[in-house]
Design goal:
This protein is an alpha+beta fold. Helix content is 34%, strand content 18%. The protein contains 7 helices and 6 strands, in the order ααβααβααβαβββ.
Length: 194
């Protein structure tokens, strides 16, 4: 599959089926994450692969998102802020850059998963305290997000808070003109400049 095709076609999958996801496929996706760019090549990310549903059902005690509770695989995405401090300084900007690095790694994971036929949803609403406790993540490591992974049926849907979320649905995207500019912020693109 072409990279642009994967980017355009990938979407958040919230209704997984019970088909087993092999360690080999998860490792391929983690390998893609590993090759993401990072500021100063610090590679501040770490990932905890979780398959234990008794554990993952407790990751989200507030919202009870079914995709977290029922996903065959849940990846805990973490950042080690000390990687940037060792190389640069302790400024908040460098911690922010670590989050950007992790975001690039997560995007690589999501695209690789789509490429091999797996659905994913990137989750920000969960209990870091519960995840830390259940996965024994050290205090100095920041738990940033989860990725729920599994096979899916195209026509499947998931009810959540009285909303029907369908796997086949794509959320709309803003037009480029709304957020891409030439030379100056707010200046329309394509104004004849080379």
């Amino acid at each position: 599959m072409d990279t642009f095709e994967s980017i355009r076609n990938r979407r958040s999958i919230r209704a997984f089926n019970d088909r087993h996801v092999s360690d080999e496929l998860i490792s391929r996706c983690l390998e893609a994450a590993r090759w993401a760019p990072s500021g100063g090549n610090t590679q501040p990310w770490s990932f905890v692969v979780t398959r234990d549903r008794e554990k993952t059902v407790r990751f989200d005690p507030y919202h009870h998102q079914p995709w977290v509770e029922k996903a065959p695989v849940c990846i805990v995405c973490c950042v080690d802020p000390s990687t940037k401090r060792k190389k640069y300084d302790e400024s908040m900007e460098n911690l922010f850059i670590s989050y950007l690095d992790l975001g690039a790694a997560i995007q690589n994971f999501l695209l690789a998963a789509w490429e091999v036929g797996l659905g994913t949803v990137w989750v920000a609403a969960f209990s870091p305290k519960k995840v830390r406790e259940l996965c024994r993540i050290p205090d100095q490591i920041i738990i940033a997000s989860l990725i729920c992974v599994g096979y899916f049926d195209e026509q499947a849907e998931q009810t959540y808070k009285e909303r029907q979320l369908r796997n086949q649905d794509r959320r709309p995207r803003h037009e480029l003109e709304k957020f891409c500019f030439d030379e100056l912020y707010g200046a329309p693109r394509g104004n004849g400049q080379p």
